[in-house]
Design goal:
- This protein is of the alpha+beta class.
- The strands form five sheets. The chain has an eight-stranded mixed barrel with strand order 19-20-22-23-24-25-26-27. Strands 5, 6, 7, 8, 9, 10 and 11 form a seven-stranded antiparallel beta sheet that branches. The protein has a five-stranded mixed beta sheet with strand order 13-14-12-17-18, with helices on both faces.
- Helix 14 crosses helix 15 and helix 18 runs parallel beside helix 20.
Length: 798
């Protein structure tokens, strides 16, 4: 951009030529006025000359125009005074003439009446000759224009000098400074020495430049901080524009995509990689495109997302895609944050395997075995091939344990697990169900083939010799076989049938295979659960049940909240007590649980209300936890029953907490959610018992509005020495904290376990270390013991 001439020169030129034009206009107007006034002036001059001559003639009568007479001197004087070229005075006697008349010139005539001495008068005629106006005006125009041009030039030069000093010079300096600033000289500033408008404008612009520099510096520093942060975090961060094209990637993202930002910039993310489901191998919708179209945050939450980059590498990921908006709320791009989930997925897989395996033998555990059987039942119900189920119980195993100890028994179980595994097909399932019991699931196997495989297992165990020290043992095994055929829908009934078949094999002499038959039901009635059905009904009628309580103690120092779990016991004929493990399965099998649950609810409400009315301890405000069975969840009249009992006993709703086990809740999820919501609306609390025992624990937890999670004791008993158990408990604690749910650890047996739980942040603990279950009549004494020493008193009192 040229700065020579420019705006100041144009302003100077406009002013200069404006002045010249104005001068010319003034000259033209002046000349026109002269032309108009000239006619009147000549007539006036002639009239004035006539009056002068009249006065002269009247004062001197002897003067009269006559032929050949010399005109008076005054006539020549008046001609010269008024600028006439000639002047004539004519009368009756003759003519006076001054100057040389020119007939081409303009003439003006004036009559002069002159009085005579005798009282008469005569009229003289005065005629003046004047040069033509055009000649006069032409001469005048020349002089005026010449003068005007000279004045305009002088004024223009003066004006140019003034404008150059006042306008052009400071303006050009400002333009030069602006060019330097635009060329990159951020220190360039405008001259503020002048006190005029340029000085004010320069100062204002300098302030704006300083503010812009400060803003640019701050923005650069903030950008550097953001870039350092984005380069430091372990997440892959990708920013796109409104069209989904990559504009930024941090180093982690470059490594994930296997592409530098220089190569990836302005390219859509889907050209650099794609998302697929790890399990189905199907493509997942591009989160960037979904985010930009919907204007909402897109979360990759299924836990099975894979990012496949442009070189084919598959990386397990999780993360989000969030829209970026400008000040007007318009979407200007998208930010994708991806976490490399390889380590977490691998840890989850290992935890899943460990949760599904028996820690001693490495075989599937009971829970995993039952889950696979349940899935197989669904396949059979859909019309697929038959399968078979074995229940194995070792013979003479107790001899090894009693003779050589549990260490020898554990080693025997490990070796037998290897032997049994070797005799099965690759897709068959072998599990240790507990103790010396094993389960086998044969997929797509006829009953005849299953019997042959079962007999092969029996012979392999029979031929095996277990050596321990100087002792050698021969072991046998009794095997119950059950076909899994279309129409089988009840897992419990199937397992019970296999158990009965195994029992029948033992009754027939041990070390043999028995296939379940319908006639085996009589054996089950005789030796199994049938006697419990009548005994439980009689116990209810004779009021031979009792409620026990076990304390649930707060682990945090200063937390005085306590709970009491209500436990059911059956008084035996000899005066002792029978735990629920002996009769609960029979009660569930024969539909007695709803009646038992109602008995426990009513007895608990009445007992604790009456004891609270008599007691002066603060235990009156403790929460009382009551277990509910799966059958009660499906009892639509339970809500009304609880409401009636509360009304009759006055038991405060806030003191009541109902417990349901995780497996029961999942099996009856819809009914569980409905029941929990109804009872919580009344003011009751809810606890989810045995949490973590199921592989889908976390998935179902979101659906159940509970107040407490009771962590399954299998994760607690070895938490001091088992890092996997500790990791599982920490995970449950973290999820519970986020959901606002309190945690309770079961099976706390010693101070070391309690201390680990306290460190993790578990809220409450329950177990023999804090107190064994006791008759409800000792409730007041237990309260006082807990008040004296909450952490140790009950444990020492056992």
């Amino acid at each position: 951009m040229s700065v020579h001439g420019g705006l100041p020169a144009r302003i100077t030129g406009i002013v200069f030529w404006g002045m010249v034009l104005a001068g010319l206009l003034i000259v033209l107007v002046t000349i026109q006025a002269w032309e108009a006034d000239l006619e009147d002036a000549q007539s006036a001059y002639l009239a004035e000359a006539a009056l002068t001559l009249q006065a002269q003639l009247e004062s001197r009568p002897e003067l009269r125009p006559a032929g050949g007479a010399k005109p008076p001197a005054i006539l020549e004087q008046m001609r010269r005074r008024y600028g006439f070229s000639a002047l004539e005075v004519a009368g009756p006697a003759g003519v006076w003439r001054a100057g040389k008349p020119d007939m081409a010139q303009a003439t003006y005539t004036q009559a002069i009446p002159v009085h005579k001495p005798d009282g008469t008068y005569e009229t003289l005629r005065m005629q003046a000759y004047v040069p033509a106006h055009s000649v006069f005006l032409s001469e005048q125009r020349k002089h005026v224009l010449l003068f005007t041009g000279l004045v305009a030039m002088v004024f223009g030069l003066i004006l140019q000098a003034i404008l150059h000093r006042m306008l052009s010079r400071p303006f050009l300096r400002m333009v030069g400074t602006a060019q330097n600033f635009a060329a990159g000289d951020k220190s360039a500033r405008f001259d503020v020495q002048g006190a005029d408008e340029f000085g004010f404008l320069a100062g204002f612009i300098n302030q704006a430049l300083d503010a812009a520099n400060r803003s640019e510096t701050a923005l650069s520093q903030e950008k550097n901080r953001v870039e350092v942060m984005l380069h430091s975090i372990t997440d892959a961060v990708i920013a796109t524009d409104a069209d989904g094209c990559v504009q930024f990637m941090n180093p982690v993202a470059e490594e994930l995509i296997a592409c530098s930002i220089l190569a990836a910039r302005d390219r859509p993310l889907h050209e650099l990689g794609k998302f697929i489901d790890e399990l189905t191998r199907l493509a997942i919708a591009d989160p960037v495109r979904s985010c930009l179209l919907d204007g909402q945050i897109v979360v990759l939450h299924s836990g099975s997302e894979l990012f496949v980059n442009h070189i084919g590498a598959e990386i397990p990921v999780s993360g989000t895609a969030a829209p970026m908006r400008n000040g007007r709320g318009e979407i200007m791009g998208c930010v994708v944050a991806l976490q490399d989930a390889r380590h977490a997925r691998e840890l989850t897989r290992r935890l899943t395997v460990q949760a599904s395996r028996d820690s001693l033998t490495g075989l599937f555990n009971r829970h995993s075995f039952e889950s696979q059987v349940r899935r197989l039942i669904d396949e059979v119900d859909g019309g697929y091939a038959n399968h078979a189920l074995f229940y194995l119980d070792l013979d003479q195993f107790k001899i090894v344990n009693d003779t050589c100890g549990h260490v020898a028994g554990d080693e025997l179980l490990r070796q037998l697990g290897v032997i049994l595994r070797d005799d099965l097909r690759s897709d068959d399932v072998l599990a240790r169900l507990g103790g010396d019991e094993f389960g086998v699931l044969l997929r797509r196997c006829s009953l005849d083939q299953a019997i042959k495989i079962a007999d092969k297992l029996r012979r392999s165990v029979e031929e095996f010799r277990f050596a321990w020290g100087d002792k050698v043992f021969q072991i046998g095994v009794s095997i119950g076989v059950v076909p899994v055929e279309p129409g089988v829908t009840d897992l419990a009934a199937l397992l019970s049938a296999a158990d009965l078949a195994c029992y029948a094999a033992k009754e027939a002499g041990r070390n043999r295979v028995h296939v379940y038959e319908a006639s085996d039901d009589a054996l089950a009635h005789q030796y199994g659960e049938m006697h419990w059905a009548t005994d439980l009904v009689r116990a209810l009628d004779e009021d031979r049940f009792e409620i026990f309580v076990q304390p649930i103690v707060a682990l945090a120092a200063g937390d005085s909240h306590r709970h009491w779990e209500v436990l059911l016991r059956l008084r035996a004929a000899d005066g002792g007590y029978i735990g629920p493990g002996a009769f609960m399965s029979a009660a569930e099998r024969y539909g007695l649980m709803p009646r038992i649950d109602r008995w426990v609810i009513e007895r608990t409400f009445r007992t604790f209300s009456e004891m609270a009315a008599r007691s002066a301890t603060d235990c009156c405000q403790d929460v009382v936890a009551i277990n509910l069975s799966g059958a009660s969840l499906n009892d639509s009249s339970l809500i009304e029953f609880v409401r009636d009992i509360q009304a009759s006993t006055g038991m405060p709703w806030e003191r009541v907490c109902f417990e349901i086990t995780e497996t029961v809740a999942i099996r009856n999820l819809h009914m569980a959610i409905s029941l929990v919501n109804e009872l919580r609306n009344m003011g009751c609390k809810f606890a989810l018992d045995d949490f973590g025992s199921g592989l889908s624990s976390f998935a179902y937890l979101k659906s159940l509005p509970v107040d407490y999670l009771k962590i399954d004791g299998s994760f607690i008993m070895d938490i001091v020495s088992d890092p996997v158990d500790r990791a599982m408990v920490e995970a449950i604690r973290e999820v519970s904290r986020i959901m606002g749910v309190k945690t309770v650890a079961e099976w706390v047996e010693n101070e070391e376990t309690a201390e680990v739980l306290r460190t993790i942040g578990i809220d409450y603990a329950q177990g023999y270390f804090f107190g064994r279950p006791g008759a409800v009549g000792t409730w007041s004494e237990k309260c006082e013991a807990l008040n004296r020493a909450p952490q140790l008193a009950l444990a020492q009192a056992q």
